[in-house]
TrEMBL record:
Organism field: Fructobacillus papyrifericola
Classification of source organism: Bacteria, Bacillati, Bacillota, Bacilli, Lactobacillales
Name under which the protein is recorded: Integral membrane protein
UniProt keyword Glycosyltransferase present: no
Transmembrane segments: 91-111, 123-148, 160-179, 191-209, 221-239, 251-272
Keyword Oxidoreductase belongs to the record: no
PANTHER family linked to this entry: MEMBRANE PROTEIN, MEMBRANE PROTEIN-RELATED
Alphabetized UniProt keyword annotations: Membrane, Transmembrane, Transmembrane helix
């Protein structure tokens, strides 16, 4: 079965769990999926499905998931994940996703406005920081998830803490790209800008193709980047250059950029709503 078929089958079988086993397996699954960045995704999903099938068999025999796999779902998941070898291709993809993903999200919109000098060096350093932060986060993820779930706090407070920690990790990257000045600065005007955007879009297409399991989640980001890229290409075409230099032209350009953000949020809301409905 493919990864998506394994996930769908997993979702179908989980409906057969009783309330106690459902809670145990949900914690088991969340921990496994959030701490398996360096494992082969196919192998992880097969492990999750096999574990679920074993729990269902034990349940029929009057045995709980905790009795079958162990009292702590995180410990049980960690023990099973350790048996899977490190998948270096997954590690390489992680580095590529983070580094290029940041450049695509931040750099393409930055050069969508012609005539703007862009500090490429700052963006590269910000991408490098995020890549190192992702490696550190991946290494500490298992301990962090276990510790966080063991702390008794209201759900809303845990959500706030998660958002604050996430913003704290991401903020330095944006601070570097916005305020750090390097000597590697370019003005991506005219055909140079168009060629740069086209190259980025080609790399993005390759990125989208190899990120099959995450296409659904990443789709709003793709739409946003492509929209910004089209604006960037359009404003650099010879017959548009004079228009964008006028006051009305700048207002139209600003309106287009805002429209891109609105489209991004609408698509994101629709995707999240569909995910929520699918979970039900």
């Amino acid at each position: 079965m493919t990864i998506n078929e394994l996930i769908e089958r997993n979702n179908e079988l989980r409906a057969g769990l009783n309330e106690e086993n459902q809670k145990f397996y949900d914690d088991f699954l969340i921990y496994a999926r959030t701490t398996s960045w360096l494992k082969d995704e196919q192998a992880v999903e097969e492990l999750l499905l096999n574990s679920l099938q074993d729990i269902l068999k034990a349940q029929k025999n009057g045995q709980s998931a905790a009795d079958y796999l162990g009292k702590n779902p995180q410990t049980a998941a960690a023990a099973l994940l350790k048996k899977l070898p490190i998948h270096w291709e997954s590690f390489a993809k992680l580095l590529f996703y983070v580094f290029f993903g940041y450049l695509a999200i931040a750099f393409i919109p930055a050069i969508s406005v012609p005539g703007k000098v862009v500090d490429l060096g700052a963006y590269l350093l910000a991408g490098l920081y995020l890549t190192l932060a992702a490696c550190l986060t991946t290494w500490l993820m298992g301990t962090a998830v276990t510790l966080f779930q063991s702390i008794r706090l209201p759900k809303w407070l845990k959500t706030v803490i998660t958002c604050v920690v996430g913003l704290a990790l991401i903020f330095p990257a944006f601070a570097i790209s916005l305020w750090l000045k390097t000597a590697v600065r370019f003005s991506f005007d005219g055909w140079v800008g168009i060629a740069t955007i086209v190259v980025m879009l080609i790399i993005l297409a390759i990125y989208q193709k190899i990120a099959k399991a995450n296409q659904f989640i990443n789709r709003p980001i793709y739409y946003y980047i492509i929209f910004q890229a089209l604006v960037g290409i359009g404003t650099r075409l010879p017959f548009m250059e004079g228009l964008t230099s006028t006051k009305n032209g700048k207002l139209v350009l600003a309106a287009l950029l805002v429209l891109g953000l609105i489209i991004f949020w609408l698509v994101s809301w629709r995707m999240l709503k569909k995910l929520k409905n699918d979970d039900k």
